[in-house]
Inverse folding.
C-alpha cells in the first residue's frame, strides 16, 4: 500500500485534506479486538464516535481508494440521517468515478437517500434505470429490480 | 517536492479531530514486516 496507493498524489491529498487518517500496527490492542481485525491491510471508514461504515481487506489500487472512502462516508451520512450530505457524497463518487467498483452501490444508495428525503419513488426508479443501463451484471442492479415497477 | 501523507498515531486524538473538523476517520491496520 505504501509503495503504490499511499504514494499517489490524489490519494495523499484526499487523506490529508478531507478525512482524518490514522495508521496502526496489526497487533495494536484494543483496536484490533474492537474492529475484529483478521488480516492486513484492512482499511475502515469510521465516524467521530468510532462507528464503522465501510471496510476493505487486501490491496486496493489508487483508482479504487477514494471511491471506497466516499462510499463509506456516504453510507455514514445516510445512517446519521443527513440525507443531503449523503446524496452529495454519492453523487461526487458517481460523477467522478463512473467506472469504479464502488459506483453501483453508490447509485443504489443515492436513490435510497433521494427517496428517504422526499418520499418520491422516482428516485428509486431512476437508480434502477441507471444501474440497468450502466451495470447490467451488478448485484446492485438485481437488488434494485423491484423499483422498475414504480 | 511531492506531498507527504500525515497519519495520526493516536486513536483518541483522531476521533477528537474528526469531531472538531466534522470529518470521518480512515483507520488503516498495517503490517510493517
Amino acid at each position: 500500500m505504501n509503495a503504490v496507493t499511499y504514494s499517489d498524489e490524489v490519494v495523499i491529498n484526499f487523506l490529508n485534506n478531507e478525512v482524518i487518517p490514522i495508521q496502526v500496527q496489526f497487533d495494536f490492542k484494543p483496536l484490533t479486538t474492537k474492529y475484529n481485525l483478521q488480516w492486513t491491510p484492512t482499511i475502515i471508514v469510521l465516524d467521530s464516535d468510532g462507528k464503522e461504515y465501510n471496510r476493505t481487506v487486501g490491496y486496493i489500487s489508487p483508482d479504487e481508494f477514494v471511491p471506497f472512502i466516499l462510499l463509506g462516508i456516504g453510507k455514514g451520512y445516510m445512517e446519521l440521517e443527513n440525507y443531503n450530505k449523503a446524496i452529495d457524497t454519492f453523487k461526487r463518487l458517481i460523477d467522478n468515478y463512473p467506472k469504479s467498483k464502488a459506483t453501483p452501490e453508490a447509485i443504489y444508495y443515492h436513490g435510497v437517500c433521494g427517496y428517504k428525503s422526499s418520499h418520491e419513488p422516482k428516485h428509486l426508479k431512476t437508480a434502477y434505470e441507471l444501474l440497468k443501463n450502466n451495470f447490467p451484471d451488478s448485484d446492485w442492479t438485481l437488488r434494485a429490480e423491484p423499483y422498475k415497477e414504480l | 517536492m511531492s506531498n507527504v501523507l500525515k497519519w495520526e498515531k493516536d486513536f483518541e486524538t483522531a476521533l477528537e479531530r474528526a469531531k472538531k473538523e466534522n470529518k470521518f476517520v480512515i483507520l488503516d491496520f498495517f503490517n510493517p514486516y
User: Anything to note?
Assistant: The interface with chain B takes residues 1, 6-7, 9, 12-13, 15-16, 18-26, 28, 31-32, 35, 37, 40-50, 53, 69, 72-73, 76 of chain A (CB under 8 Å). Chain A has a mean pLDDT of 96. Strands of chain A lie at 20-25, 42-46, 52-57.
